Amino acid sequence: MKKTMLSVALMALLMGCNESKVDNTADNNNNKTDIKSKDVKIYVEALSSHNGEFRAINDKNTTYTNLGSSDVNATIKDFRFFLSDIKLINKDGKEVLLKVKESDYQHQDTNTNLVLFDYETSSNKTTNNLIDASVAQGDYTAIEFTLGVPEKLNHIEFPDINALNHSKMAWNWQAGRKFTKIELLPNGSKQWNFHLGSTGCKDNDGSIECKQPNRVRVKLDNFDITKDTIVFDLSKLIEDTDITTNDGAKPGCMGSLADKDCLDTFVKLDINIDAKDGKCTGSDCSEQVVFSTGSNRAKNISGK
Questions:
Q1: Can you tell me the mean pLDDT for 254-259?
Q2: Where are the domains of the chain?
Q3: Residues 231 and 292: beta-carbon distance below 8 Å
Q4: pTM (predicted TM-score)
């Protein structure tokens, strides 16, 4: 395949050796039952793969080839995104929410979670590539997550939540946060951006309402947590997009359906461009092609 495969591989290296007891629940006799959990560490690597070779996307001086519909070379200025509501699904179909540990990049909230992955290529270092969490022990066969920030957290102006206090991921207060921030520097062309977040947001008596939420729900079935990885494939996202041209007011996609540079990327994420409602074309974004399952990628990752 000619195109360079730029991927973000979320390596599901779930470490079950450390066990702990999580929330106690009362049974019918008002006795407490201990539920054992295991630590979960999901490493998130930004990868470039070409001709079977893999390189981390954390170096501003690396040139990646054959990008977009015009097959251009480019460096990567910035690469960050939020995943939230991350769940494992057991063999009985029950969804189990990961309990992430509070940090500068993670937040556990009531009935949801949030992790910011930050590759900060301008500083030549990866600043966060890990989900550090725990989950109830079980036989898990699938994983599910949302690309985006949960609605109830997205429009907090000055949150006491470190994971949301990264200024470069902020839009205006009504629009909330950028869910994804990818910035490319094509050779011989101006910077090209992919900024995804909720748009068409208005303050309705103190409550923010957005016409296009632009959240992408992803489920990967037949997921073996002992060896499979989750792959974010940048080449799939931009394969039909010419990153050397600009059809909107600003270079690249700024998250709006009014921006023609967004249309092809939205199709790849299965965001409905016909309904213009910022939602998946079906009940979920099952037709998206950006996220997929990989196997045994860990052995190919530089430094692992």
A1: 87
A2: 5-17+36-300
A3: yes
A4: 0.86
